[in-house]
Design a protein that fits this description.
This protein is of the alpha+beta class. The protein is built from 3 helices and 4 strands. Strands 2-3-1-4 form a 4-stranded antiparallel β-sheet. A hairpin with a 3-residue loop joins strand 2 and strand 3. Helix 1 runs antiparallel to helix 3.
Length: 106
């Protein structure tokens, strides 16, 4: 893995579903945990059609260390359960899930 900054993105179709309090709490917990584990910044957003989650990391090694941790697995399960409880169809509603090398930021 290269030592360059990366972003991790997760974009999900809403299909007229609403973000619930349970989803919000699970995502905030997860993103707060990411910050505690080396994430440089995160965003949880929505538009009319999508849920958008974005994290920024100084390099992919730090991201992958977090992704392989028990805390990640626990928090991820809470997110998945909260989306399923809100009738999202996972993985079918997921539009995009990727890690990308940052070429420029300011």
């Amino acid at each position: 893995m290269e030592k360059s900054p990366v972003i991790r993105m997760w974009i999900t179709n809403k299909n007229k579903k609403k973000i619930t309090q349970e989803m919000n709490e699970a995502m905030v917990e997860f993103l707060s945990s990411a910050i505690d584990n080396g994430c440089n910044g995160s965003t949880f957003a929505e538009d009319q059609e999508r849920v958008i989650v974005y994290t920024m990391w100084s390099d992919e090694v730090i991201l992958e260390r977090f992704r392989s941790s028990e805390i990640y697995k626990t928090k991820e399960q809470k997110i998945i359960q909260s989306f399923l409880s809100a009738n999202f169809e996972l993985p079918g509603d997921i539009l995009f899930n990727s890690t990308a090398k940052i070429l420029f930021t300011n």
